[in-house]
DNA sequence: TTATCTCAACTCATCTGATGACTTTTTGGA
DNA sequence: TCCAAAAAGTCATCAGATGAGTTGAGATAA
């Protein structure tokens, strides 16, 4: 077991064993060095690992703390990695996304309030009216994010946000066929919207699944290159 | 932007930009130092971060490589973190698990082969017959894992495995009420099994959802302490 | 020629010491 | 009592040295 592994599991165990709870502060670097029996470099690498995973946070000048350990934060750690997956191996993940989108759409249909209905309506209208090819994808994301939020599960909201950001990088709307794709996409949004507003979970679920399936079709067919800013 | 951030995003960009593909080797530490303009310590911390996220791998004496970038590997990086979440904030995640279990059960019902049927049957029988309280949870895990595998999506298999490992740490069967819990649990398994064997996706989906919901009920009611080995 | 062994070069792993930068607490004065 | 400056504590970063594992070229023997 390497020095970094010792430090990593040592730190992790402090949380798993209940010695430290969410938000609590670790002993100082110096104290941890002697407790874990590794050098400062190894300890710092272990801290960075747990930090990348969203489990702990280091604050310069203050100390190192256990994070709030909220599921949505943990899922958020996927954001920087999902973008790196090649399109080829991504279809499994789209199946996952389809299942989850169906679920949030159904939940939203069951729970949406009048105020939220108005908000969602505004987004659909704005999306269909958007001429700017920069704005359309942004509204698209907002539309789906709002549905996720209405469904009431922050973890799912974050996870689907991660997936969606990945899709957006492909910029389907910017393809030569972008106009037609947008037309079909907007129609899909309208279908989802109608089902949700009518409080029809089954229809919303089916519409969302179909919407994702459509996206997968486009990606498989066009295989657009990712934008690398 | 801190030195580690510079190194982290620099490395990440080498993959995102396509300069390095899955399995390819990074330049040596020394070469990266001058390219990224940070010290060895900072570079190593950044490498560890990406390594913890499952994106790259360092091999002692050989070099640092991009991982295979398979979705299931990325999801696997959650294994060490989900176990740390407190029960209180875990219900959102169980909703996620319920949705996914329903899906894999339905998929399995649609796709199961005769050989797989026999295999699954053996597991159900063994589980109901298991007297040893150590073996029962293991067979339980195998039963669900097999269903996931039959459903044909490695990413989902890994993700659900992570969630299930989390549940197992609570050792419901070891409670005073364990015998009754096992009886109900085994009945749930039998229901799921029957639906899958009958190629009835809808029934399988419902049975799986109910099985997860039952688990959540138990956890909420008993709030057992985690086992910390 | 082919197979195997040896060793040098290359690579990551770890430790140590020193310095900088930021935050929090304490302290002293108004 | 309030506020600002000082001090203490903490993480951030760099640089150098040494250890340990891997790899491949070249020597050697079959």
UniProtKB/TrEMBL annotation, chains A, B:
The upper taxonomy is: Bacteria, Bacillati, Actinomycetota, Actinomycetes, Micrococcales
Q: Keyword Glycoprotein: yes or no?
A: no
Classification via Pfam families: FCD, GntR
What name does the UniProt record give this protein? DNA-binding transcriptional regulator, FadR family
SMART domains, from UniProt?
Answer: FCD, HTH_GNTR
Superkingdom classification of source? Bacteria
Keywords per UniProt: DNA-binding, Transcription, Transcription regulation
HTH gntR-type domain boundaries: 1-69
Q: Which Gene3D superfamilies match?
A: GntR ligand-binding domain-like (1.20.120.530), Winged helix-like DNA-binding domain superfamily/Winged helix DNA-binding domain (1.10.10.10)
Specify whether Transcription regulation is a keyword of the entry: yes
**Which molecular function GO terms apply here?**
DNA binding; DNA-binding transcription factor activity
